[in-house]
Amino acid sequence: MMTSLNYVEPPNSNLICCICHAPFTNPTTTRSCMHTFCRDCVVEAVRHSPHCPIDRSPLAMEDLAPANPIVKHLVDELIVECPLRTAGCPRTCQRQLLEGHMKDACQYVTVPCSEDGCRQMLLRKDRGKHADVCVHRTTECDGCGASVKYSDLTVHYPECSSKTATCCFCAAEILRSKLQDHVATCPEVVVPCPHADNGCSWAGPRHELSEFHIHSCAYESLKGFFAIYGSRVSSLSAENTALKQRIQALEGIVHLMQREMQSFKTILGPWYHSEVQRTSRTGVPHVHVPEDSQGFVGPSLARTAAQRPPAPTPPDLFDIIDADQDTATPFFLPPEALFDSRIHTHSRTAGGLLDIQSHPGQRSLPLTPVAPLNLNTTLEGSLVGLRDSITGVAASVDSLTRRNDIALTNENMRINEELGSLKYAVHGIRLQLHRLMMDRNAQVTGRLGEAGSATTGPVPIPVPAPPAQPVLHPPIMTPPFIPAPGTKL
């Protein structure tokens, strides 16, 4: 609406938006180029193209900020005409006061009628005239003084309490406002006996009830008993309701305990023994879980477990156990067998450099069978036994680690000694090859010298050669010890 206002004086050109060519509405300034626009105008422009509409510099929504408050005050103080000037409103005011004028003061604004139920729209200046002729206005009845809508007067007049009416029971003429009170005490109204709830079937005019029937009614003499009986029945009903609620609560607790008990049975599994299995004094044979010669549970365990729901087992549990059987085998071997298997594995991965089986005196340790769980004891006892077994396994693992470290240290010392002997032998061979090459070079050099002297100079006088020195060769070192069979040396 702000863009369609008529200004009394032409606004300053510095207060005009270059997009809508109207004075600023909610002025907004860009942080990058410091240009000012209307808020709605610049937001719509940036959505279509992220550039400033004036200098085409990059512009984003984050670069928009409210303009200086002075600019907002300048545009809000511009004098404008009322938008309904064509309808007859001559009002001119500052732009910031226009909203309040349109909401409360302008007489040419269309507003609804203030009466309930009237949906007619009219000008604010005509609302007072319409209130005098509106059919939904509230008026006062001339007879009884009640407030009634003008449109309901035709319905109210026949029922107005200021007029008289005839009682349909005794034909008396009374005011309509007191008709209901008269019916409540009219002697000709047919009423039942007060003891109808107890079984009396009499019904007649009200004056006959107190004059004749009440003295001859058989239930009148028993009204004290009926009162006591009614109070007793009420108390029993309340007590019965409380007992029902308590029973429902107890049933819920019982169901919860049954579910918990079933969960405990499932969790305990073969360690759960029923009262029949635990009690032998009643003459019922004790149910025993048979075991075979190796200590494993017999098939009767399956028949015993079939009497209760099986424990929930994931469908792929057995596949996982079968797939990981080889991987998990070392964890269930005794310490000696585990140590032996690890030594063989290390020997294979090292390419034959570390072969524990080739050492003299080395022997494979026998496998110790693992005893099965004792299902005849309590779960606590089984857990204590498992804890003791784990403690023993931990001690065995620690001992195995120490022995493995000692074996690796001895093997490293042997390998270092063999490498030292190899280095010494290779060094001797290198010295021998060097001596042979030096002798060969000396022979070749001597022959070339003799050939040159024979062709260019006189024949030299032979000089007796010095006695030949013995050629020294470095000894070939032999290993200080005989290598163990099975090594590369």
From TrEMBL:
Zinc finger TRAF-type: from-to: 101-153, 155-200
Pfam families named among the record's database cross-references: zf-C3HC4_2, zf-TRAF
Domain RING-type residue range list: 17-56
Signal peptide residues on this chain, from the entry's feature table: none
InterPro entries linked to this entry: Znf_RING, Znf_RING/FYVE/PHD, Znf_RING_CS, Znf_TRAF
Presence of keyword Ligase: no
One annotated GO molecular function: zinc ion binding
Segments forming a coiled coil: 233-260
Sequence ranges assigned to domain TRAF-type in this UniProt record: 101-153, 155-200
SMART domains: RING (SM00184)
Record has rRNA-binding as a keyword: no
Keywords, sorted A to Z: Coiled coil, Metal-binding, Zinc, Zinc-finger
Protein name (Swiss-Prot/TrEMBL): Uncharacterized protein
Organism: Boletus reticuloceps
